[in-house]
Amino acid sequence: MRAAVGRGILAKTGGFSMSIARLQKETRTNLPFYEERVDLACAFRWTARLNMHEAVANHFSLAVNEDGTQFLMNPNQVHFSRIKASDLLMIDANDPNTLSGPNAPDPTAWGLHGAIHRNVPHARCVMHVHSIHATVLASLADSTLPPIDQNSAMFFNRHVVDAHYGGLAFEEEGERCSQLLTDPKVKVMVMGNHGVLVIGDTVADAFNRMFYFERAAETYIKALWTGRPLRTLSDAIAEKTASEMDDYPGQAERHLAELKAILDEEEPIYRN
Q1: CB crowding 87-121: b at 16 or more within 10 Å, else e
Q2: Would you give the distance in Å from CA 188 to the centre of its chain?
Q3: With CB atoms counted within 10 Å of each terminal CB, which end of the chain scores lower, N or C?
Q4: What architecture is domain 33-271?
Q5: Where are the domains of the chain?
């Protein structure tokens, strides 16, 4: 009897698994840019897991056409931990009616990301958060990140500080911020009195950079707490380290692949 019941449970479980697999296959078929959506959904959920999110604010985007003006973005005021591939909005940076549509994005997300995708075509993926340590850094009189360890050296001559916070990032503020990212070497903007914005070629590239910038900012802030002198790397060694990390093979891709593998085991619904 127990064996029969067990077989029944297995049969039901197997049927349920097959239904999920079928649903995921249909989702892949019906959703444009499915793999890009999965990568972005993974990034949202891991940002929440790492406590780098803030309530239902902050926003990521990913360009999907050649000139970067069409992009995926998170829906307005949905918690990062709940975002699925199918939830992501398709936005046109050149559409003046974007905010009047039924699925309009957050106005500040539109102002900031729309301007960047219009004006900075090499910024394929854009991630903006108010993560704790990067925001502490953004609150200092000097928000430059010095090269005091390997992680912080990654960003030597590769980040810019916006020292002219002008309020919420509506369209005018977004246009101003986008002009600070025109140098292809600059991948991070410390938004003074605000937070941090990171760009990359792919979701993996941008997320990996955002993760390491937060870690580097944490190390720096905690080093300042000691009140002791900092051991800062020379410009030559800092630039050498940054260049070596720029060329380090496959780290960002493997990082995201491992994060997706964990979600596949623990909450595969993110792919739907």
Answers
A1: bbbebebeeeebeeeeebbbbbbbbbbbbbbbbbe
A2: 12
A3: N
A4: 3-Layer(aba) Sandwich (3.40)
A5: 1-30, 33-271
Q: What is the rounded distance in angstroms from the CA atom of residue 198 to the CA atom of residue 139?
A: 17
Q: Which residue, among 98, 92, 93, 73, has the nearest Cα to 83 in the 3D structure? A: 73
Tokens of 252: 């960002």
Tokens coding 244: 């070596």
Distance CA 80, CA 260 (A): 15
Tens-level pLDDT at each residue, the chain (272 residues)? 444 444 443 344 455 454 445 656 655 668 999 999 999 999 999 999 999 999 999 999 999 999 999 999 999 999 999 999 999 999 999 998 888 878 889 999 999 999 999 999 999 999 999 999 999 999 999 999 999 999 999 999 999 999 999 877 677 889 999 999 999 999 999 999 999 999 999 999 999 999 999 999 999 999 999 999 999 999 999 999 999 999 988 999 999 999 999 999 999 999 99
The angle subtended at Cα 52 by Cα 51 and Cα 58, nearest 5°, is: 125
Which two three-digit tokens encode residue 102? 């039924």
Q: What is the C-alpha R_g of the chain?
A: 21
CA distances from 164 to 13, 51, 207, 215 (A): 57, 27, 25, 25
Instruction: Give burial (CB, 10 Å; 0-12/13-18/19+) of 214.
Output: buried
